[in-house]
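Supplementary Methods, section 5.1.

A reviewer requested that the exact input to the structure prediction be made available. We therefore reproduce it here, unchanged from the version used in the analyses.
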Amino acid sequence: MAKRTKVTSEQILNAFKGLSQPNLQENQQLLDQTDPALVNGMKKLIQIMLENKLISKSIDPVSILDDRFIKNAKL
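The structure derived from this sequence is encoded token-by-token as follows.
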């Protein structure tokens, strides 16, 4: 990733500090939209991408979320 983004490995690692990977239960909550955190984060990202011309039109985050797979997942 560092090579592609033209930054150092250390910069990539620093960028990932504080990130967490949701477990199954957290993924289920995020994708079934009982917690608005994912949709709200997606809205902010969409706005940033629009402002920086990374996408040409807005996207409704709810329209691309699908919890069918994760809802039935078992550990």
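The helical segments are 2-5, 9-16, 24-31, 37-51, 61-64, 68-71. These observations are discussed further in the main text.
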